[in-house]
Amino acid sequence: MSKQAFGSAKVPLSPAMRAGDFVFVSGQVPVGADGEIVSGGVGPETDQVMKNIETQLKLAGCELSDVVKTTVWLRDRDDFPAFNEAYGRHFPKDPPARSTAESRLMIDIAVEIEAIAFKPQ
Questions:
Q1: Sheet-wide strand order for 67-74
Q2: Which tens digits make up the pLDDT trace of 12-38?
């Protein structure tokens, strides 16, 4: 099995890594193209995170419909309903398996999401 990294980061990780037919997307945070954290709470942050995941997937030749599993970290479990609403818009059909936990995050954000996609080469 071969592996290939996609994208670059300012920290020691690959934003996305293909290993055979799977693509692993590192935890994405709600940072826009300008390098700033988006404002507005967990809903807009979730939308930005999903855009960032989609960008990484495209580098590996995948799209959101190829995602089979996500792991989500929320700063506050009370954000779960608003998060679910935003997240659901990105997976309108056959959403992936998902784990969600409340966690203290590395920076002052409401949500971080990682994804695993399956797309045979």
A1: 3-6, 16-19, 22-28, 111-118, 67-74, 97-102
A2: 788 899 999 999 999 999 999 998 999
Count CA within 13 A, CB hemisphere, residue 40.
Answer: 14
Structure tokens at 119: 């797309």
The rounded distance, in Å, linking the Cα atoms of 6 and 17 is 6
Strand-pair category, 67-74 with 22-28: unpaired
Range with lowest mean pLDDT among 15-19, 42-46, 49-53: 15-19
Q: How far apart are CA 80 and CA 78, in angstroms?
A: 5
Q: Which CATH number belongs to the domain containing residue 14 in this structure?
A: 3.30.1330.40
Express each pLDDT in 59-81 by its tens digit. 999 999 999 999 999 999 999 99
Q: What percent of the chain has pLDDT over 70?
A: 92
What's the total number of domains in the chain? 1
Rounded Cα distance, 49 and 112, in Å: 7
